[in-house]
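Figure 3 (text version): structure tokens given as input.
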């Protein structure tokens, strides 16, 4: 019975290694796309990334729950799992940094566009003054709407 459990644990560890390898390949692709400002590629990888993250979390949860049995996994498999996990960690940190940078850049560009639109709107807008007369000088309270989608 214990031998079967050891074989199952080895198989699960190898499955996790495969998932990590797929996740790492996807992150490398996404990181390259982020560096190249290729938004289409990043967005096309989103659904695949969600699926692989779910599989990774599920397999990781299994090993977290069964930490006591990790010693039963073959040493070579454990070492491979450790190396793959370290590589994945490096890629995840790079991915997080690139995503934060791109999101902040997008936010700054949007804010710049909004501010330019506000200044232009205030400069060109006219309104009625407090006495009901036409007054181009009292134009600082004009409404400005912008559809922001990041």
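Below: residues designed for each position.
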């Amino acid at each position: 019975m214990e031998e079967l459990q050891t074989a199952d644990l080895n198989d699960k560890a190898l499955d996790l290694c495969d998932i990590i390898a797929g996740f790492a390949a996807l992150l490398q692709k996404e990181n390259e796309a982020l560096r190249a400002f290729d938004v289409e590629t990043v967005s096309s990888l989103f659904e695949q990334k969600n699926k692989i993250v779910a599989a990774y979390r599920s397999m990781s949860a299994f090993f977290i729950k069964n930490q006591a049995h990790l010693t039963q996994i073959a040493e070579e498999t454990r070492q491979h799992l450790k190396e793959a996990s370290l590589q994945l960690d490096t890629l995840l940190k790079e991915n997080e940094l690139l995503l934060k940078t791109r999101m902040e850049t997008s936010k700054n560009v949007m804010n710049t566009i909004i501010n330019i639109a506000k200044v232009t709107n205030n400069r060109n807008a006219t309104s009625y003054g407090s006495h009901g007369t036409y007054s181009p000088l009292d134009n600082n309270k004009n409404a400005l709407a912008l559809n922001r989608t990041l």
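The chain has three helices and two strands.
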